[in-house]
Predict the 3D structure of the following.
Amino acid sequence: MARSRGRGAAHEIRRCRLHRSGKDPGVDRLAEARGELWRNWRGWSTEASSDRHAELFISPQLTDAARIVDVLAHELDHATVGTAVGHGKAFKQCALAIGLVGPMRATTAGPEFSAWAQALFKCIGPYPAGYLTDTPKQGTRMLKCECSACGYIARVSQKWLTLSGPPICPSDRIVLITAKA
């Protein structure tokens, strides 16, 4: 695999920060985006960060270590060649030089890059790539009480069931039955 030449590329890469975020930063971005070099209203830029670092975000939905590494390489490519070029000629030259293949907007690891990544994993061990899940919405804490005669339903907290007992049906004047969950 070819290495970057010149002080500029290495200097830019040292100024990057990687985030494996709980939320994709580009809310309005396409759903298939896997990584992003954080941008401000001027476009992708180190000016978006208060300390002038390129901020890289990798989607928390990715769990395959090899895919995470090639997405990271794609985003580091943006940081290396400069953000103004987008996915143009300079980006393509850099991406191909490190072994990325495919359309430049959605590069993947080529055989050479994959071999390098596998050798890296042998040296550093497996990548801990669990994914984040949405926390389930809390259901109601209210308990359902129902009239056996007319089907009237009332919801009551456990506190009030313990302190006052089940409510009384307003039409039949009988104690409601607490439904088991």
